[in-house]
Amino acid sequence: MGHVIREGDDVLLFLDRRRTYLVRVERRAFHTHKGVVQLGELVGREYGTRIRSSAGVEFVALKPNVRDHLFKMARGTQIIYPKDLGLIMIYTGVGPGSRVVEAGTGTGALTSVLAYYVKPSGRVYSYEVRPEFVEIASKNLERAGVLEYVELKNKDITEGIDESGVDAVILDLATPWLVVPHAYSALKGSGSFASFSPTIDQVVKTVKALREHGFVYIETVECLLRGIRAEEGRTRPETLMTGHTGYITFARKGLRT
Amino acid sequence: MGHVIREGDDVLLFLDRRRTYLVRVERRAFHTHKGVVQLGELVGREYGTRIRSSAGVEFVALKPNVRDHLFKMARGTQIIYPKDLGLIMIYTGVGPGSRVVEAGTGTGALTSVLAYYVKPSGRVYSYEVRPEFVEIASKNLERAGVLEYVELKNKDITEGIDESGVDAVILDLATPWLVVPHAYSALKGSGSFASFSPTIDQVVKTVKALREHGFVYIETVECLLRGIRAEEGRTRPETLMTGHTGYITFARKGLRT
Amino acid sequence: MGHVIREGDDVLLFLDRRRTYLVRVERRAFHTHKGVVQLGELVGREYGTRIRSSAGVEFVALKPNVRDHLFKMARGTQIIYPKDLGLIMIYTGVGPGSRVVEAGTGTGALTSVLAYYVKPSGRVYSYEVRPEFVEIASKNLERAGVLEYVELKNKDITEGIDESGVDAVILDLATPWLVVPHAYSALKGSGSFASFSPTIDQVVKTVKALREHGFVYIETVECLLRGIRAEEGRTRPETLMTGHTGYITFARKGLRT
Amino acid sequence: MGHVIREGDDVLLFLDRRRTYLVRVERRAFHTHKGVVQLGELVGREYGTRIRSSAGVEFVALKPNVRDHLFKMARGTQIIYPKDLGLIMIYTGVGPGSRVVEAGTGTGALTSVLAYYVKPSGRVYSYEVRPEFVEIASKNLERAGVLEYVELKNKDITEGIDESGVDAVILDLATPWLVVPHAYSALKGSGSFASFSPTIDQVVKTVKALREHGFVYIETVECLLRGIRAEEGRTRPETLMTGHTGYITFARKGLRT
Fold first, then answer.
1. Which residues on chain D are in Cβ contact (under 8 Å) with C191?
2. CA distances in angstroms from C103 to A40, C134, C181, C245, listed in the order given
3. CATH number for the domain including B219?
4. What ipTM, to 2 d.p.?
5. Are B174 and B80 within one domain?
6. Is the Cβ–Cβ distance between D118 and D93 less than 8 Å?
7. Same domain for B53 and B23
8. How many other β-carbons are positioned within 10 Å of the β-carbon of residue B24?
9. Which tens digit of pLDDT belongs to each residue from A103-147?
10. Average of pLDDT values for B107-124?
11. Which helix (H) or strand (E) element contains residue C78?
């Protein structure tokens, strides 16, 4: 009751850790390398239910959470990893009720996570200069069920931020240092700044701009995630690992004297 | 207006990254190694304001966020680090409205973060077997402003969980594997399990129990955070680094067939 | 004079960091994806010379060093990485003149490095239980020019070590803990033990055995290597990284009282 | 016989992994926090022997190896760590018989390791611009027993290298990029270059200079070492870890066409 799968819901079909599929439940067949799954059979069953494909392979129908939506939103584009997003959430304190400015929107991956955490009373103002991405993001955010908490703006954030008194400004774009003065104006006193950048050159420029514009508590970190294979008698870390996604720079707005 | 410091508020006095002080604003003097700060002077000023100590050293009065409260809650006890908490939030999908079972409460550090993110409509059921910690946690949660979203329970979670149909069970205790069967019963289908453990032995036992009890999507990770000193001409990672806090094991509840 | 390429020499044809070829210089054509290289043209030229393929692509003919030989010795089998070997050399102090017992030989990768460093007056006693590998190793060691410093033994080292008074015992096999008592007998007082193992379970058993058999200065480490792309304006660590090769356990022989 | 401690020898008194003492064996008392050790008692006993202090605490008298000498040579100055040295040895192929140019000498730590591995027929040409360090290094190298393989030069290597046709040039100084052209001239074709630098800015400049001067196979790495506490039932990585020592850049000399 309440926690059953309905037609039109998204489910995450789980085969194993590397093979999960985000699918819409409709009266249709879903083809996988492990046989056909009749999605219609899921209707009315509880989330977490197991279903067999035509090849007799078991899938589990999970309710997609914020991370699952995030992964499926990537589709070939570079997105901020969950590990980095978790850090951004905790370090900036973005949470229920927060008003957050974000750029660039891209496919909406970062946006979706921010929107998920600021709901129900908060709001995400998301800037994107490329119109085609605004459209893609809009669809992705709707699918993730968080579009109503987001204001998508087809604007170049390096030219200015419309909002003021916001709790946080969070950036994932090529030239974050150009946004630093606008972020300062938009933030309320003590508000949080975060910027994700793949290269150290971007970090150096951004930190310099932050120092010059009255930001305090400036810190840059990188976060490395390593998988562990835990099995009695042969426990060891995973052989392959992502060695780098990006650096994250944090700061807080101190008022000028 | 609205964002001003009032008597009785907590502020985070920021000197530099390693020296921050969480203090209650009252008409009193606060003594630091860098002189005396007259806290009363902060009343009525905006958050982010700068204030000079008697020694002429500048402090910034920041509004403490979820991470700042967390650090100050540690006070000599081992707490889960923000980096690990961020990961737990994103991977489990705990967010506004979630109902979460948590153990052990300890000083309330993990509890405070969960409570911050499930508000306003969610709830954290926090188990702690040692009565003295329930009291400490209660005070800390009140100070962090999230006590109303938490139900503190002076109970041994290895003997059972009272709640059912919860969204997530999150553990930070010595014997998580003993809680696995109770977690399974308490979770709704597809719900999330997370456990933080310092030793690999705890991980191996927990993963084994998860496999035996019908959990799926089991994965263990460790998260390494490295600070970067970004300064033109002499950018380099920090020399010292925390090499280990703990492993985090995640899983989802699959229904038994 | 002296440093010229001669017929029959091995050269490392370098195209870029990921594409290097260890080839014997003969009057023949060497086919690559970037055209044909006439190896005979290299005869009489200095090491480090550049040569163009039929497709006009430039290769550099480097003199293969110990690491280059090592990589080419792998050929699909798991070998100890250079980073781990470097650590083993320095921590054990194996160097010119050392007498070293080693197992298992495998394709001779570890053996070749040990032999390279103990020459000219030292010696490596290398144990291998599988006869087919003894043969492969023999060929590889001859090609690397260090066979004369090695005694290849087709024996099971878990049943005993023939040598005594050796400077170091270095292991890369599945059950190092079974070799610990033999290593103790074979080593001279204060001699060095090192063992490379992929799983933590192997480490725990080996460390336990070392403690029980009078070894001191026992320590286990893991070594992570990360590549950096250094280029003005876009410097960043490499995206992919090997997250785990193995743990290395070191110890020294303390005499029993 | 042969492997006994003699008066005048250096021994490494081992108490535990964090407390080791490099002492000269003489007929005198050595004072530690764990009581007095009568060093004279060691004379004539075998290396690895255990000796009790006046407080009844056991020490083990180990024969110092190349790494032990290295650590004791540090004495408050920054030295290249063994992990980085191991990598440098293997990647450059410096070994018995190699002729190596090195700078700056400093206290002789890196020099001592290079000298240890090039002996007996190789040679290290070590440049140091500060005369006081040449003297310190001389004493340290003598104590480590490798002075005869080293030529200490009180010269500024950024102004030129006297030697030619060397196998490797290895740098640990503030401005390695200024040495790159001299290194190119000094190296024989295909010879190895290695440079250790704490900051990324040094790396970027050095890599740029290497590219401009005809070097090939240029790569930069960083090496992270993590200690593991292996004990049944409570195995875990060490809490504290060195997060950064420096970057190492490697290259090979390709001839100009």
1. 48
2. 58, 11, 14, 18
3. 3.40.50.150
4. 0.94
5. yes
6. no
7. yes
8. 13
9. 999 999 999 999 999 999 999 999 999 999 999 999 999 999 999
10. 95
11. none
According to DSSP, residue B4 is labeled B
Q: Which residues of B touch A216 (CB under 8 A)?
A: 14, 60, 62
Each residue of D3-26: pLDDT tens digit? 899 999 999 999 998 899 999 999
CATH number at residue C31: 3.10.330.20
Q: Peptide bond preceding D120: is omega within 30 degrees of 0, i.e. cis?
A: yes
Say if residue D146 is in the same domain as residue D242. Answer: yes
Chains that touch D (3 or more CB pairs under 8 A): B, C
Domain hosting residue B81, numbered range: 67-253
CB-count burial class (<10 Å; 0-12, 13-18, 19+) for D6: exposed
- Structural domain includes residue A101: yes
In angstroms, the Cα distances linking C149 to B5, C109, C114, C193, D36 are: 77, 14, 9, 20, 44
Main-chain dihedrals φ then ψ at residue C217, nearest 5 degrees: 50, 45
Query: Mean pLDDT across chain A, nearest whole number?
Result: 94
The answer to whether the beta carbons of residues A182 and A149 sit under 8 Å apart is no
Nearest neighbour of A67 by CB, restricted to B90, B204, B249: B90
CB contact under 8 A, B190 and A62: yes
* Among D141, B56, B116, C225, CA closest to A224: C225
pLDDT digits (tens, 9 = 90+) for B205-214: 999 999 999 9
**Residue A28 distance to chain B (closest CA, Å):** 22
| Residue D166 half-sphere exposure toward CB, CA atoms < 13 A | 27
Same domain, C138 and C24: no
Chain A, chain C: beta-carbon pairs less than 8 Å apart: 60
Shortest distance between the Cα of C251 and any Cα of chain D, in A, equals 10
Is A70 or D183 the better-scoring residue by pLDDT? D183
Which residue of B232, B237, B243 is in closest CB contact with D238?
B243
For D184-240, write each residue's pLDDT tens digit. 999 999 999 999 999 999 999 999 999 999 999 999 999 999 999 999 999 999 999
Residue B83 phi, psi dihedral angles, 5° rounding? -55, -40
Question: pTM of the full predicted structure?
Answer: 0.95
Work out how many domains chain C is built from and give that number: 2
Task: With beta carbons less than 8 A apart as the criterion, state whether C235 and C196 touch.
Answer: no
Reported as a single tens digit per residue, the pLDDT across C183-242 is 999 999 999 999 999 999 999 999 999 999 999 999 999 999 999 999 999 999 999 999
Phi and psi dihedrals of C229, rounded to 5? Answer: -95, 105
